[in-house]
Design brief:
Rna Polymerase Sigma Factor, Chain: A, 2 domains, 4-stranded mixed beta sheet, 11 strands, globular
Length: 383
């Protein structure tokens, strides 16, 4: 059986990973569960799957884990991810913690020689050079869990890397793809922004999808996963095609699958094998539409490409500013369009440098995030 550690087990990807495990209990054994603050859900999961290690990053919640009801190792504190990722019984680490908080867990998994199923895009966005070089040094596979990157990974099996022309990510366009003006977007509420038309996701990634920053982060992530900066994107509102690969002979290979995150999770857990899912034959009952992005109204992917090409700490700056701005929006302190204005301003004014160690990225993230939270009133006035 394959030993699985799930970092971020109470979040959307973590819960869906456990759905996959339930479906294939003879294939997988849950060795470790870690979450950030949701002790109630964590205890419920632990009682069902009975992992040997249960961790929570919030050190104030440690006493609550005494209610688990069976003998296991319990830990409360920031190091919970790193401990879980390094357990000898673990074969694969599902990294699904939201934001840069997931970076240390991924690095611990790589250092321990564990295969990584990566759902935390911020790790490669902010620290891609360091993480991919470490993985190569340790000979560790990083398998993408994002549906778009899983699609590209599968499409690349149809050709040689040297024949690659470009990668084409698809985007649903989010809930506001039909918006025409910035004034329309400025009135968007958090409740509206988190209602994605096609996917069931957490709040942060839903807002990122609404601003199109999610596609920008995915572009940077794809650069590190697949070793190319020739990356475009197209709006595909039905979310039928998850991504495409174009080769230099003009051939385009596309991946089609239901809008269900358990499928790329299952693929990452079972790779290189494929295990039959609960889905029957694909119905082919919907039309496929392509729409050119409106980068005047939704500039985030363009900003992400600027940061990607600048390199160094620029993507980390972009990511930190976005994480802070999304948090401010969800708490009702800024309006929807302020997210884009703040990120653009911080990327333009914060000087990017080179870096040698992931700890530099963590400190940079804390500083930029803190400055945005502190100065949001002034920053939200910038247009």
């Amino acid at each position: 059986m394959i030993g699985v550690a799930i970092l971020g087990s109470t979040g959307s990807i973590g819960r869906q990973t456990l759905d996959v495990v339930r479906q294939y209990r003879d294939n997988f054994r849950v060795c470790a569960l870690v979450c950030g603050t949701d002790a109630v859900s964590l205890i419920k999961q632990a009682r069902e799957f009975r992992p040997e290690f249960v961790g929570i990053s919030d050190c104030t919640k440690g006493n609550e884990l005494a209610e688990i009801g069976y003998k296991c190792d319990v830990f409360a504190g920031e190091e919970a991810q790193e401990i879980a990722a390094s357990l000898p019984s673990v074969d694969i680490v599902v990294a699904s913690v939201v934001g840069l908080n997931g970076l240390k867990g991924v690095i611990a998994a790589i250092n321990a020689g564990k295969r990584v199923a990566l759902a935390n895009k911020e790790t490669l966005v902010a620290c891609g050079k360091y993480v991919t070089e470490l993985a190569a040094k340790k000979r560790v596979e990083i398998l993408p869990v994002d549906s778009e990157h899983s699609a590209i990974f599968q499409c690349l099996g149809g050709g040689k890397k040297e024949d690659l022309k470009r990668l084409v990510l698809t985007a649903s366009g989010g809930p506001f793809r039909s918006a025409k003006t910035r004034e329309e977007l400025s009135a968007v509420t958090p409740e509206q922004a988190v209602r994605h038309p096609n996917w069931s996701m957490g709040k942060k990634i839903s807002v990122d999808s609404a601003t199109m920053m999610n596609k920008g982060l995915e572009i940077i992530e794809a650069r590190w996963l697949f070793g190319t900066e020739n990356i475009d994107y197209i709006i595909q509102p039905e979310s039928i095609i998850h991504s495409m690969v174009e080769f230099n002979d003009g051939t385009v290979v596309a991946q089609i699958a239901p809008t269900d995150m358990t499928l790329p999770i299952q693929f990452a857990l079972t790779y290189p094998n494929r295990v039959a899912s609960r889905y029957g034959n694909y119905p082919f009952d919907k039309s496929i539409t392509f729409i050119e992005p409106n980068e005047e109204l939704f500039p985030m992917p363009k900003l992400a490409k600027v940061a990607m090409r600048e390199g160094g700490t620029a993507p980390a700056i972009l990511n930190a500013a976005n994480e802070a701005a999304v948090a401010l929006f969800l708490s009702g302190k800024i309006c929807f369009t302020d997210i884009m204005s703040i990120v653009a301003h911080i990327l333009d004014t914060e000087k990017a440098t080179s870096y040698d160690d992931y700890r530099e990225i963590i400190e940079l993230h804390k500083r930029v995030y803190g400055e945005v939270i502190r100065d949001y009133t002034k920053l939200s006035e910038i247009r």
